[in-house]
Amino acid sequence: MKEIYISTDVETDGPIPGPHSMLSFGSAAYRPDKTLVDTFSANLETLPGAEGAPETMNWWKTQPDAWAACRKDLQSPEVAMKNYVAWIKQLPGKPVFVAYPAGFDFLFVYWYLIRFAGESPFSHSAIDIKTYAMAMLKTGYRDSTKRQMPRHWFDKLPHTHCALDDAIEQGALFCNMLAENLKSGTKQK
Questions:
Q1: Gene3D superfamilies in the record, alphabetically (predicted)?
Q2: Contact between residue 34 and residue 170 where contact means Cβ atoms under 8 Å apart
Q3: Buried b / exposed e across 88-115, counting CB within 10 Å, b at 16+?
Q4: What is the pLDDT of residues 168-188, one digit of tens each?
C-alpha cells in the first residue's frame, strides 16, 4: 500500500495538552506527487479545567483573525477526533503524519487521538519537516529553519496561523522536498 502524507498543523492555547487545549487542527492529505487528496479540520472546545498559558494568550492577541477563525463552529474533542480517525481510515494509502515541527503538533494530535478516539492511525511516528531539511541540506538542525531553506521548495501559499491553511502550505513544502530528494537518487520503498 502506498503512503499518504498527512500534513498537520495545530493551534493551541499553551505548550502541552492537558493543562492546555488544542484549539484547532487541520490536515491535508497528499500523495507523494503533491496531489492534494483531501483535507480535514476542526475547531475544538477547550478541555475542562484547562486554561491558556499567559505567553501563548498574549501571542494570540497579536493574531485576531486567526483567533476568531479557530473559535467558531466548535466541536467536542470526542466528536472531532473520532471523525478524524474515520477520515484518515478512508484515505487511499498508509497514513504518515508530517508536520513542522512534528514534536509539537504530533504531541497534541496523538494525545487527543488516544484520549478521545482510543487509537492513533499514525502509530507512534511522525516526519518532522525541519529534520528532513537538515538531512537534505547536510547542515545542523538549528540551521535548518524555513529562512535557510531553498526558495524553490516553497509554493506561494499563505501561512495564516489558521490550521488548515498552514497544513496545506507545509504539506506542499514537504512534497517539494520529497520530490527533490527522490530525484537525487534516494528511492522510496
A1: Ribonuclease H-like superfamily/Ribonuclease H
A2: no
A3: beebebebbbbbbebebbbbbbbebbee
A4: 999 999 999 999 999 886 554
Specify whether the CB–CB gap between 142 and 3 falls below 8 A: no
For domain 3-183, which CATH number applies: 2.60.40.60, 1.10.760.10, 1.10.3210.10, 3.30.420.10?
A: 3.30.420.10
Paired with 38 in beta bridges are 29
In the numeric block, the cell 516526519 is attached to 127
Residues in the chain, pLDDT under 70: 1, 185-189
d(Cα 156, Cα 141) in Å, to the nearest integer? 25
Neighbour tally for 165: CB within 10 Å? 19
pTM value is 0.94
